[in-house]
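Dock nicotinamide-adenine-dinucleotide; give full complex structure.
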Amino acid sequence: MALLMNKVALVTGAGAGIGRATAIKFAEEGATVVVSDIDPVGGQETVDLVQASGGEASFIRADVSSPSDVAAMVQHAVTTHGRLDCACNNAGIEGKIAPLAEQAEASFDRVLSVNLRGVFLCLRAEITEMLKTGGGSIVNLSSVAGLIGFAGLSPYVASKHGVNGLTKNAALEYAKQGIRVNSICPGGIDTRMLDSLAEQSTGGSMDTSEMMAPLHPIGRIGTPDEVANLIAWLCSDRASFVTGAHVPVDGGYVAQ
Ligand code: NAD
């Protein structure tokens, strides 16, 4: 039996990387998918990929740091597909690699605005809808950088620790109303974001995988699909007793 049969599921930042893999996985598992991204080209490509494999999806452009965009995004899910059962708050940016004393305020503010304020705005709008229909399941994208420090990435680390804090609070506040909220903490995953981080730290002298693989006990970086598998399971009723958790999907990174 598919994990998400007859569910309506929203994914932010679904125009690329982990978000795109999650939208495709949700559809494979039987959900109708709301694909959202700030980038309409990438978002529409994801919708096309879902539909090409027989799934159902619609696109709505939204910048997760904008309250009006987020409200319109959740409203789109309800008016187009009738309800909202699952959400993956995935949209995120990496920021600049620099020691803390050299981080610019504008760069810090932008990272926090997308990664933390964005998750807050999405949670608020999604929970409001889920309360009307008796519950749901939400997965926030944190990171191993939400569990431990990562030298050079203080805004990103602060934002992802914040995501884990919001996750705990939302889980506690809505547990009795049937809404489960968890976060996942990926290690290095093969996407544009990881390429950008590798490029910033080596100036392009090393391949991303070559640089990041040895940091993971499993000996390689992960794929977006390996992350999407966990997200789909956490969103499904199979995870009915899991809430307020921060689950690593990191090839053993934080076990070290
Ligand atoms: P990515 O850069 O490949 O994709 C991010 C997507 O988010 C893009 O489609 C982009 O257009 C969209 N986006 C960016 N800003 C947005 C905004 N303001 N509003 C809406 N959409 C926006 O990144 P990814 O690697 O797939 O990362 C997805 C999530 O996973 C992020 O939250 C990231 O922090 C987290 N993560 C990634 C890794 C990794 O190694 N790739 C590791 C840990 C956590």
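Observed: The longest strand covers residues 179-186.
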